[in-house]
Amino acid sequence: MKKIFLLPILCSLAFVACKPELLVTPSEPTKGLSGSWQIIKATRNGTDLTTRFDFSRFRINFTDSSYTIDSLVPFIVSRNGKWSFDDPTFPFSLSFQPTDSSARTSPLQYPVTGGQRNLIISFSPGCSLNTYQYTLQKAN
Amino acid sequence: MQHQPVQHKPLVKRKPSAGVIWKVIGALLLLIIAACSITIDNVAIPGSIKSGDVLPITLNVTITTNQTQTSNFMTAVLVPKVWKVAQNATITFTSDITSGDQAMTVIPAGTPAPQGGGMDWPTLLATKIGNGGNLLPDYEWVAFYSNASYSVDANATIHATVSIKIKTSPDNLMFKLGFCVANSTDGLSSSDRYATAFPGCFQAIGTGDPIDFCNPQISTVDPRASLDNDIITLTFDGGVQSTALDNASQVYLCIAGITDTGDSLSVCTQTDATRMTSLGLNKWQKDIWPRKLFNLTDNQHLTGLRYFFTDANGNNKVGYAGGASPFLYTFKCQ
């Protein structure tokens, strides 16, 4: 007899418990560069220069759209200016627009190594036959 | 004294095991594969030419096959980077199994070489074959494939004559050229599947600073092509000849930058900025960024460098060939 009373209650609870599942498509976050970055590795035509040349004081400070450079070394640009990605969600190149000269663009790799985001750019600051690759990491 | 029991094996004719059969088959296959070979029989190349002229080279190649195969023919050249061979060379060949000149085209860098473990042809050639004894790093392998692929019969001997024409740069240089032939199926998978030739030191006689890849130099500059906003590496090798710095415990750079207006900017004090790093065996190295070293303004540009090496007091100074004239370096980008 008790079971007969329980059945409608259980049925009504089952109806209340069922809700349509809300499906949310996962979205890739846009990438940002904000902060101060330092050079942790530098090569010239594949030769590692990291410990041979003093890159230690170089810093590039990115804000939402601008950058400033401290203690310049041979770099893709030598003046402060604006920066942009080709695609903020999936960036494959990084452009620098110095305030008083033409824009320069570098192919970009943006891997996470050892839990740290790296920024790898390639460019020719002098002769175009020479390719430099710098790996930058956020400075503490 | 105990006598050990002697076991006599029954004299029964045993069948060879499956392992033995496979070993015999493997050995036979190896013999068949090993029978395929490619050789460069000779290289016809002038000992020197005038810089800027076309350098003609002929390779006589023999290919012996023991199995049918369809492949593209590959020819690679080891050359100074400054020649830009990918843009300035044409390679063709004639052979017993083709009619007329067969065209070849540069294999784009990054194209994986067959059986090359993911490496492209230039990387594989540099890794497996090397630099041909060139002492400066500004060399490159440039590889070409035949535009067509060719089927070869088993047990055939094919003769090919490869014609290489390179438009050289105006640079005054000595270089040990190298050549490699192979095919698009086997790559450099084993030493009998490719052939190399290194005919010795070749000279392109031009004007300007001599670039000698063949002989040890008392001082070198890397990279050879650079501008004043590059990082350039100067080395001093005191092991090449006896100099006034044979016993120096520290070596410094004494250097002048020559501007495009003819001014000479000198940095010749013994400081951290000019102190060279010891590489051992009386070899020293310094990486400089000329724009910073000479405090150039935006409007100043360097056309060249004149430099010496000195000891910590600056009293003993070594110049070109160990003498009193400075070493010279010209900034250029070609």
Automatic annotation (TrEMBL), chain A:
Record keywords:
Signal
A Pfam match is: DUF5004
Record InterPro entries? DUF5004
Domain of life, per lineage:
Bacteria
Q: What does UniProt give as the signal peptide span? A: 1-17
| Name of the protein | DUF5004 domain-containing protein
Automatic annotation (TrEMBL), chain B:
Which Pfam families does the entry mention?
Answer: DUF4961
**The entry's keywords:** Membrane, Transmembrane, Transmembrane helix
Locate the transmembrane regions by residue number. Answer: 20-40
Quote the InterPro entries the UniProt record gives: DUF4961
Superkingdom in the source lineage: Bacteria
The name this protein goes by in its record: DUF4961 domain-containing protein
What organism does this protein naturally occur in? Niastella soli
What lineage is on file? Bacteria, Pseudomonadati, Bacteroidota, Chitinophagia, Chitinophagales
